[in-house]
Amino acid sequence: MRSDFWRNNIVLLTALFILAPVGLIVWQSFLTDAFFSARARPTADAYSFVLSDPGFRDALKNTIILSVGMVVIAVPLGSLLAFLMVRTDMPGRKWIEPAIFLPLFMSPMVLAFGYIVSIGPSGFWSVWWQQTIGVPFWNVYSMPMLVLVVALTHVPHVYIYVATALRTVPSDLEEAARVAGGSPLTVALRVTLPLVWPSIAVSAVLVAFLGFELFGLPYVLGDQDGRLVLATYLYKFNTLLGRPAYQLMAVVVIFIMLATLPLVMLQRRMLRSAQRYSTIGGKATRAHLVPFGPWKWVALAGVLVWLYAVVLLPLSGVALRSLVTTWGPLVSIRDVLTFDNYHKLAELPLIRRSIVNTLLLAFIGGFASLCVYVLIGLASHRSQARGTRALDFLVLLPRAMPGIVAGLVVFWIFLFVPVLKPWVSSLVAMWVAYTLVWLPFGLRLVSNSLGQVGRELEEAAHVTGAGQARVARDVILPLAKHGLLAAWLLAFLLYAREYSTGIFLMGQGNEVMGTMLVSLWNGGNIDVASSLAVVNTLVIAGGIALALRLGVRLDA
């Protein structure tokens, strides 16, 4: 009985944590003014204003174009990459795979800076190309380039799903096709990929959904031409109207969630179907690699070109830009080399504080969030109660909420609740927003770790008279500790790279590196921004190195 009481309380608190932000958004969208204003009256005028605004229609169109473009480019490339890595004898696969996951943990703001300083109008590569070959044929601020960049950086999302499926598919059908005279390409297109089609479809829905969350890359690469997507349109509302228009912002949030929630639910349904998908196979569970002959070197070259485009190109640009005072077509690097930009990081209190706050939030905040996820995971662990089944669907709501939206609504809640208002510009508010944003992902990691504990061990503990709390403390948590440690390290990486969640919450004292990068870009301080981007990347690289050292799977 006490177990059910504890479980129900956790479920209710979690439901309140999820539904309160959603309810506040809906309520605010039907008001004439800010929800905390005495002048606020019920109305639907905000919906009429947004729907009639050409800027909103353009932002929606651009978002759809980006989302579709990501699916068209990232899904085939990610599927092909998974096939090359898992099913062929392409050389270097062991050391290439960790590099494939790097774009997942790199801050999109860092990538955006890197592309501007590398292939922008005055970028290092652009200047070299113009001096040696002629006028560059690319325009980093164009819509096709934006689509290409965001698609290439989302290839790892597809790779994770397809590679996981390929590792579970028996190889006897492929062997039969090769014996019948099929070429490696024919076998891949007609046998292997159709067998993992459900996973490919799931990854396509995921990529389409992520297209509606984009902020960093469209904000930096699209801002030059005033090209907005839904997330940047939401962010620009403060400057477009000269004052915060909470009711209009809430309407935009509603439309984002209406577009993303069905995609999230579809992905969930398809993922469950993919997990039940089976193939008829006889002998081997271990795949035999497809011999690619001389083509394996062509495949390796193609993978290295992609890694250069999404990792080395932007990172090298940011690193070089952080070491020069200025740059342009007539500037010699030897004349402008300097470490002054890094000295500024140490001299500026805001920058120093943002680095310390990021480490605190990623390390301590990540652990605190993990504790929250563990409590929720234990409450729903092996439970068939209606409340926990309902919670299983409620956790989809934060997944449909981009980081910038979660930060905005947490900002509103801290303004609305008097006891929370003094903390609105603190790391506490930032931590709450991060915990909400990553709740679905963190809960999935925790549930996977708890689910690996054998049911018979828990039942044996119950037979000896142990209650639910004792079983959790003495059986489940000790046996799941390695998985929970991995979840903590992944939370560290995600919190260290996060940038959009804290944009509306940033105030004096709670700056983090991600939000400072946005602020520095707005102020045109690209020198210090590049230096801070390098520091942010080094922090994330250190976390990845530690995770790999401890055997953590980055594709979790």
The appropriate CATH architecture of the domain at 44-338 is: Orthogonal Bundle
Largest sheet: none
Q: Could you say which structural class the secondary elements and strand pairing correspond to?
A: mainly alpha
Count of individual beta strands: 0
Protein name: Iron ABC transporter permease
Membrane topology: Multi-pass membrane protein
Main location: membrane
Transmembrane segments: 64-86, 98-120, 140-166, 187-212, 245-266, 297-320, 355-379, 391-417, 423-446, 475-496, 528-552
Sum this structure up briefly.
With 556 residues, the chain is mostly helical. The chain has 29 helices and no strands. The chain has a domain of 295 residues: Orthogonal Bundle (MetI-like fold), CATH 1.10.3720.
